[in-house]
Amino acid sequence: MTGKMDNNETNKMATQKFDVVIRGAHVVDGTGAPGFDTDVGITGERIASVGNLANCDARREIDARGLTLTPGFIDAHTHDDRLLLSDPSMTPKVSQGVTTIIGGNCGISLAPMPGVVPSPVTPPLDLLDDTGRWFQFATFAEYLNRLRSEPAATNCAMLVGHTTLRVITMSDVRRAATRDEIAVMRRHVEEGLDAGAIGVSTGLAYPPAISAPTQEVIEVCRPLTSREALYCTHMRDEGDRVAESLEETFEIGRQLGVAVVISHHKVVGEKNYGRSAETLDLIRKAMQSQRVCLDCYPYAASSTILAAHLARTCKRVTITWSRGMPQYAGADLDEVIARVGGTMEEVIAKLLPAGAIYYRMDEPDVRRILAFDETMIGSDGLPHDERPHPRLWATFPRVLGHYGRSLGLFSFEKAIHKMTGLTARNFGLTDRGEIREGAYADLVLLNRDTVAEGADYPHPIGPAIGIDTVLVNGRAVWTQGQATGERPGRVLGGH
Ligand code: ZN
Ligand code: CU
């Protein structure tokens, strides 16, 4: 009897046909557990089987012997809101193994934009598009529906930007919002969440959101509470007042009863070097009584719009793009000052609108934050900069190659967890970030001995080394060093 059943089982297995079978991979499943050698069968969008599939057929076979299979990477912090539409191949991302991006960060979202786009586009919204052409979605639903009808190569989960809401709502963004303005912004948040946004982001360090008091943020974000959505923040201060900013972030999370995400956690300014020991202590303590998440990019230089108050705090500044003097993209600000003449402030005024890289962190802080157990990996890449910070193309391979393999900051399994399972759990991305039966087939096949960044400061654009094949929802988006042109990406709903 038992034998007969076994026979039936074997026969069923023998006739089982998958769309794709990946054979003989070393599987690192995203949970942080040690890897193991096995086969993975995919049917449609999902992983149908993990185990010995020697007797199974497939429409497509991938021989993965000698390679490592991991869940697709989730970029916890991006500004890809427009890239998803303007270059849906998402090459800077899929080339390094990213299969899902979190967009709408730092208070900056492409939607909603119900009225006329301000001209020039209010910084820092111009990070997404300084022409204003792409701010064409009156509601968040319109934006997400476009992403659904014209999908990109990667999945995305999107946040509503508080700075965008201020710009569309307030007659003067240089002050706190009035009670009426808060009510309007709150309705936009409700609309965004109903449409499928996973939370709200703020960029309290920059004007115009810098003028928003804590209470404004809390009141605008009220709709997060009932939907268990997220509050993600580029904190008010990452320098001298970083501890106070953490406290403000925790307070907002407590008042709303929601999880907070501390974006691109860092400590800037020479006199604050070393203070990540203190900030991580504060974060660890807060985690005992409320939900706190954080992400980090693997570089000691930051990048955003060009501004004198930031340039003043750095020894070195590199221009990433400039409308005023476009010929200086890629040049150091000191060089530009020497050539053009005048004070730093005068030269910056001539370059604007513009973007920059700021060398203003301490390497030991970067390592301490990266190695912290709960830190997720997020690129904070700026895809529309002419000479972008290399984090856009190289964040994930740099974590695996430079920080993991070369410096031994963490095990390979731990590094993968920081870019997959941990991130999916924190953002509520169901059935993503892990390799197991029933999970979506977002997968990366890579060579763990060679994976490395293909872009750096002098050469900021280039695909990663050692990324063999990338699948999104069961379909290959990157193989043999090229984008396939497939667009299987989905808008993910979160909680
Ligand atoms: Zn930011
Ligand atoms: Cu950002």
Characteristics:
binds zinc ion, TIM Barrel, 2 domains, Dna Ligase, domain 1, 20 strands, 8-stranded parallel sheet, globular, binds copper (II) ion, disordered N terminus, 495 residues, 9-stranded mixed sheet, alpha/beta
Please summarize what this structure is.
The protein is an alpha/beta fold and 495 residues long. The protein has two domains: 72-302 and 360-423, Metal-dependent hydrolases (TIM Barrel, Alpha-Beta Barrel), CATH 3.20.20; 303-359, Dna Ligase, domain 1 (2-Layer Sandwich). The chain contains 17 helices and 20 strands.
State the name of the first-level CATH class of the largest domain: Alpha Beta
CATH H level of the largest domain: which superfamily? Metal-dependent hydrolases
**Broad shape:** globular
Strand content: 15-25%
How does this structure look, described?
With 495 residues, this protein is of the alpha/beta class. The chain has two domains: 72-302 and 360-423, TIM Barrel; 303-359, Dna Ligase, domain 1. The chain is 31% helix and 22% strand. The chain has 17 helices and 20 strands. Strands 1, 2, 3, 4, 5, 17, 18, 19 and 20 form a nine-stranded mixed beta sheet that branches. Strands 6-7-8-9-10-11-12-16 form an eight-stranded parallel beta sheet, with helices on both faces. Strand 7 (98-103), helix 4 and strand 8 (155-161) form a beta-alpha-beta unit. The longest helix has 17 residues, at 179-195. It starts with a helix and ends in a 12-residue tail after the last strand.
